[in-house]
Amino acid sequence: LWEEVRDRYGAPSGEVLRLFAFASLRLRAEALGLTQIDLAGGALHLRFGEAGGLAPAALVARVQSSPGASLSPQGVLRLPLPAVDDPIEALEELLALLEDDARGAASPAL
Q1: Looking at residue 106, what is its pLDDT?
Q2: Angle at which helices 87-106 and 56-65 pack, to 10 degrees?
Q3: Which of 13, 17, 36, 78 is the most buried (most CB within 10 A)?
Q4: Mean pLDDT, rounded, for 72-100
Q5: 3-state helix, strand, coil in the chain (%, to 5)
């Protein structure tokens, strides 16, 4: 889709680039089993669906290794925002951490 838009309309504007970045983040979040992401109180609140993409042990380990993080019984992971100016960039960083956690949980221990 990206190539088609670029070929048809030329170099995309900043708004279009941001839209593609947001769409990419949404796909990555869905692959992790996230159903909702909110920004509130200087933290990202990530709600996992019933069939979450992360093992419970990986979520607990993420909370234990992230100062100020918490996990509610309803499946909401609260992670303080990293020191970045853009919440989209912060979400990018946090999704990358969770993707690493999911890969690590899927790999057998040696």
Answers
A1: 60
A2: 130
A3: 78
A4: 86
A5: 50, 20, 30
